[in-house]
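Side project, low priority. Logging it here so it doesn't get lost.
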Amino acid sequence: MANVPVRVIVENLTSEEGGSILSPPWVGFHDGNFDIYDRGRPASPGIQSIAEDGDTAIMLQEFELSGLGTVDGMVGGGPILPGQMASEGFVLDSDDPQSRYFSYASMFVPSNDAWIGNGNEKEYRVFNNGGQFKPISFMVMGDDVLDAGSEVNDERAPNALGIPGGEPGNGTDENG
């Protein structure tokens, strides 16, 4: 067993004036089989909760119950505003095949149910088969923002977060 400290850093590079906000991202390290979503399919309850309200609790449970990874958590303790950065440290076992890949999900605000995350569960490999750490860095662009398809996109209070009067749990179900 070789414990390796890993730091996940999230920087919101949107413009400080009129930029977007990110909820504290959920991150997980797994064996390459924890698939958080597939385009064209309904979002899981965990993704819905993140996309609608920025709440990671259900995703944390889904990850734990999957048995496909052993380390997950949130980055930061609050919204990541334009121009801000958040980071969180994790300790991974470089010999554990359940720590080789990285996934993430975060609400994109303001929105009803927009979010960002990686759909390819093997997109971000952090350890090779020999247990050597492979640092990764990537940028998420505007056309990478996804729609969970779980709430009508009316972008109005009280349904959408990030606008005056917006509150969690108030969106109108889409296709429901």
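Brief comment: The chain has a mean pLDDT of 90.
Revisit when time allows.
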